[in-house]
Write a structure and sequence with these properties.
CATH superfamily of the largest domain: Glutaredoxin
Structural class: alpha/beta
GO cellular component, one term: cell envelope
Helix content: 25-40%
Keywords: Cytochrome c-type biogenesis
Distance between the termini: 123 Å
Number of helices: 4
Subcellular location: Cell envelope
GO molecular function, one term: oxidoreductase activity
Main location: other
Strand content: 15-25%
Shape: globular
C-alpha cells in the first residue's frame, strides 16, 4: 500500500462572503448599523400611526348646557332643545342686534307656532340695558342668558366673533347652519328657514 506523502498545512484564505469583515470599514462599530435601522423603523411606525388616525368627527349638535332664563324666566337645557327652531345670539352692546330683534319678533308672531324662536343674550354684563332692549323690541319669544360665553366653540357653535349670530336647529337637535348675519326682514328669515331646515312657511 502506497501512502500519500504528508501535506504541509497551508493557510486558509477567506474571500468574498466568507470574510467576517466584508462590507465594513476598518474601525466601524458593527452595532451602529443595527441601532440606525431600529431608529428608522420606530420613526416609520410613528409616521404611519399618525397618518392612520382618522380626524375627530365634528360635533354639530347643540352643546349639553343649561342656560339661565332671561330676567328670571325658565332655564333652558340646550341638550334637550329640538326644532325646527331658530336661535338668535345677541347682546345689548351689539348695535345691529337692536335693528334685528324687532324683525325676529315679527317672524315669531307670524310663524312661531311652526318654527320656535330662542334668543341667547351672549356675554352681556348690562342686565338693565338688555331688559330695556327687550322691552323696546317687544320680544315675546323665550330668552336665556350666557354671561360667561359658555356656548362659544361648544357643540355645533363656532367661536363667535361679533354679533348677531343666527342658528338653525332641526327636529333632532342638530345645528344645520350657524351664521353671523343681520336679518333685515321676516321674509329673509322665511327663506333661510326653507333653505336650512326644509320648512316652507
Amino acid at each position: 500500500m502506497r501512502r500519500l506523502p504528508a501535506r504541509e498545512d497551508l493557510p486558509v484564505l477567506r474571500r468574498g462572503a466568507d470574510r467576517p469583515d466584508r462590507g465594513r470599514e476598518a474601525g466601524q462599530d458593527p452595532g451602529a448599523g443595527v441601532i440606525r435601522a431600529a431608529v428608522v423603523a420606530v420613526c416609520a411606525a410613528l409616521v404611519l400611526a399618525g397618518c392612520s388616525d382618522a380626524p375627530p368627527e365634528k360635533d354639530d349638535r347643540l352643546p349639553d348646557l343649561t342656560l339661565a332664563g332671561f330676567d328670571g324666566a325658565e332655564d333652558v337645557d340646550l341638550g334637550d332643545f329640538t326644532g325646527p327652531a331658530v336661535i338668535s345670539v345677541w347682546a345689548s352692546w351689539c348695535g345691529p342686534c337692536r335693528k334685528e330683534m324687532p324683525v325676529l319678533e315679527e317672524f315669531n308672531a307670524a310663524y312661531g307656532d311652526r318654527v320656535a324662536m330662542l334668543g341667547i343674550d351672549f356675554q352681556d354684563t348690562d342686565a338693565a340695558g338688555a331688559r330695556a332692549l327687550v322691552e323696546e323690541s317687544g320680544v315675546t319669544y323665550p330668552l336665556v342668558t350666557d354671561e360667561l360665553g359658555d356656548i362659544n366653540g361648544e357643540g355645533g357653535f363656532p367661536l363667535l366673533r361679533g354679533l348677531p349670530y343666527v342658528a338653525f336647529v332641526d327636529e333632532d337637535g342638530t345645528l344645520t347652519h350657524v351664521e353671523a348675519v343681520v336679518i333685515d326682514s321676516a321674509d329673509e328669515l322665511v327663506d333661510m328657514v326653507d333653505e336650512h331646515l326644509g320648512v316652507q312657511l
